Amino acid sequence: MDLDELQAVIAATYGERDAARGIPATVAWLAEEVGELARATRKGTRAEQLHELSDVVAWTASLANQLGLSLSEALARYAEGCPTCHRVPCGC
To answer: What's the pTM?
Structure first.
């Protein structure tokens, strides 16, 4: 699945509910999921880490949808390596 497909699935599955919740609440949920990912990274199993990582990606896609942004377009800035020094690996 590519990022555009992911955004479309998230929009179809949760878009109406996410829009009703609003951007501030979505950011709060995303922050909570990042915290859960941090905890799973430190103390969790691989399965827990995958679960929390998927939640972070899904909430990020939801936020992008609500903002009218494309994850593919946002991440294109890293397609050639470091967006500051333009090197792989980063030389900053």
So the answer is: 0.93
DSSP conformation letters of 9-73:
HHHHHHHHHHHHH-HHHHHHHHHHHHHHHHHHHHH--HHHHHHHHHHHHHHHHHHHHHHT--HHH
Q: How many CB atoms lie within 10 A of CB 64?
A: 21
**What tens-digit pLDDT sequence spans the chain (92 residues)?**
999 999 999 999 999 999 999 999 999 999 999 999 999 999 999 999 999 999 999 999 999 999 999 999 999 999 999 999 999 999 99
CB 50 within 8 A of CB 44: no
SS3 74: helix
Identify the CA nearest to 19 among candidates 60, 56, 58, 65. Answer: 65
